[in-house]
Write a structure and sequence with these properties.
Blueprint (H helix, E strand, L loop, with lengths): L2 H13 L7 E7 L4 E6 L3 E5 L12 H14 L8 E5 L2 H4 L3 E5 L12 H4 L3 H17 L20 H11 L6 H17 L8 E3 L8 E4 L2 E5 L6 E3 L2 H8 L27 H12 L6 H24 L11 H22 L1
Antiparallel strand pairs: 1-2, 2-3, 3-5, 4-5, 6-9, 7-8
Helix pairs in contact: 5-9, 6-7, 6-10, 7-10, 7-11, 8-10, 10-11
Length: 342
């Protein structure tokens, strides 16, 4: 049975709506979850990847429950409603959960023309909406399904252990892993100051994880990396993409120069927005920035090593070896900036 037929019959049976699905549309077959739109129902199904995933495990139950908790705690935040989950393989052969289709489109590597050709006022609004949405996530209490809150440093232990394991494989990219390990070792030894009590943390607060419709933020997506911890991490992740001085056009990765277009909020304004919304002080944010840059490096290194070792054959990983040195250099520069400022 084809994937489409399997999805159609399985989800129709789960919903109790035989004959309702007219078409299966691939939304994303990413490194984490596979996502499909089931036309005729306007329901979206998410499931773990069919092959080796980049960052297992994939807990569909937890993802479902987090979205339900966020929707209940923050009704003004545009997160999809959820319609159930299952680990019963008789439906589609994999665990899954169902969520609402929200309007809009996302972007990441290349900004759409409506943004690049728009006014500075439009770009400022887009940046402010993005920063504000993820700042508002901090108003959600810790989610019970995610377990006990992690301290600021404990939140990076997963990425440290992943980097140690990948570096030990001795591939060509191991030298970058050693630099990331040194950075995280220093952070663990120093510690990270808490900004306040633990909250829900999105964990992947990049602009690619929101959708837009007519210049307005219409959805906040991709919650698989969330945890209970310090929300300053979400701000630091957003700051990774923002230059301190837009005129420098200094990005963490090539292809993200739209952040430097006139009107887009610079780093200092992003911090002000976060502090105003959360009511917290971002006193230790520079060290959180180093930690988040190291986390990004750890994730990209995982993809590089997986591709080099033949663990994942996805050709989208083939250019990641060109990216990892840029990310590691960015992390080192962020660390050096702290010394220069002291």
């Amino acid at each position: 049975m084809s994937l489409d037929n399997n999805l159609i019959t399985g989800i129709e049976r789960f919903l109790g709506r035989p004959g309702s699905v007219t078409e299966v549309v691939t939304v994303s077959a990413g490194f984490s979850n596979e996502t499909y739109l089931l036309r005729g129902t306007d329901v979206v199904v998410r499931m773990p990847p069919s092959g080796t995933g980049l960052l297992p495990p994939y807990d569909m139950h937890a993802q479902h429950d987090v979205l339900a908790a966020v929707g209940a705690a923050l009704p003004g935040l545009p997160v999809p409603k959820v319609f159930g989950w299952s680990e019963d393989p008789s439906y589609i052969g994999r665990p899954f959960y169902l969520l609402e289709l929200l309007p809009g489109a996302s972007f990441e590597l290349e900004a759409p023309a409506w943004l690049t050709d728009g006014t500075p006022e439009l770009r400022h609004s887009v940046g402010e909406q993005w920063i504000s949405a993820f700042s508002n996530v901090s108003k959600a209490p810790p989610a019970a399904t995610l377990g006990s809150p992690l301290s600021a440093t404990e939140a990076y232990r997963r990425w440290y252990d992943l980097t140690v394991a990948d570096t030990a494989k001795g591939t060509a990219s191991a030298k970058y892993g050693r630099i990331l390990i040194e950075l995280l070792d220093e952070i663990f030894a120093r510690g990270l100051k808490a900004s306040g009590p633990a909250t829900l943390v999105h964990g992947d607060s990049k602009i690619a994880n929101v959708m837009w419709r007519d210049g307005k933020l219409s959805a906040l997506l991709d919650w698989e990396m969330c945890y209970n911890g310090d929300p300053l991490a979400d701000l630091a992740y957003m700051l990774y993409w923002l230059p301190a001085d837009p005129s420098l056009n200094e990005m963490g990765l090539p292809g993200f120069d739209f952040y430097s277009l006139p009107g887009f909020p610079p780093r200092a304004e992003a911090i002000d927005i976060w502090q105003r919304i959360t009511g917290r002080a971002a006193d230790d944010v520079q060290w959180y920035e180093v930690a988040e840059a190291a986390k990004i490096g750890s994730i990209v290194l995982r993809g590089v090593v997986a591709h080099e070792a033949g663990e994942i054959s996805d050709e989208r990983l083939s250019f990641w070896p060109l990216v990892i040195p840029m990310i590691v250099e960015r992390a080192q520069r962020l660390r050096d900036t702290i010394d220069r400022a002291s």
